[in-house]
Amino acid sequence: MSLSMPSRRLVRGSSKVKEALARAIDPDPQARVRWERKMAIRQVTNGTDAYSVEPRHLRIARTERVLKSKSPWLPTSVKKLVHLARQIQGKNVEDAMVQMKYSKKKMAAEVITQLNIAKDLAVAERGMGLGFKDQKPPAMEIQRKDGKWFTVTDPTKMYIAEAWVNKGPLRARSPDYRARGRMFLKDSPSTSLSVVLKEHKTLVREHQEREHRKKKQGPWVHLPDRPITAQRAHYSW
């Protein structure tokens, strides 16, 4: 009886044929085309209308360029690589390379290699750091989030906005022989480095948003006049 009944996997499984997959993924192609055309028209209309309000995240994604790069697993630990990640965070790519060039850490050379790879990908894939063809905009003095003042001479110059490390799998486990005939197992960890590259125009936008927020907030009132609330005809104590 069990031989005549089909297996549960065959009954519940799906066909790998292209036509069957198309019916499951795209059941109504004409409706999908109409919806895509409607969304494209809406996006173009909102983008060209001077009175339309574009969402903030869409405006940032349209006007600013970002690249995220992750290195392969490096033969080091999180405790060692995290200090280098904190050292290069917030610096320009060139300044971070100079810091790693004169660092005594073993993984500093590998960090330079990963920064070069991320920089090349940003230039080739995102068009970042190419400068201006005709004339550069005037230099602008801005204040960063940490309170330090910074002069922006080239808005397309790249900097490391974020840098963090990820714990990877163990590379090996070797014996560690100790005194009195004891032995421990020593693990060899692996860690990866992830960086997010952005342009200086992002710093300019963040500075302008902070200044606009300060002006919109207004001066601080020490003792504001507030209405009396929770009035009762008898004492509350």
Automatic annotation (TrEMBL):
GO CC annotations, alphabetized: large ribosomal subunit
Domain of life: Eukaryota
Matching InterPro entries: Ribosomal_uL22, Ribosomal_uL22_bac/org-type, Ribosomal_uL22_sf
Keyword line: Ribonucleoprotein, Ribosomal protein
GO biological process: translation
An MF annotation (GO) of this entry: structural constituent of ribosome
Family label: Belongs to the universal ribosomal protein uL22 family.
PANTHER family hit by this protein: CHLOROPLAST 50S RIBOSOMAL PROTEIN L22-RELATED, LARGE RIBOSOMAL SUBUNIT PROTEIN UL22M
UniProt name for this protein: Ribosomal protein L22/L17
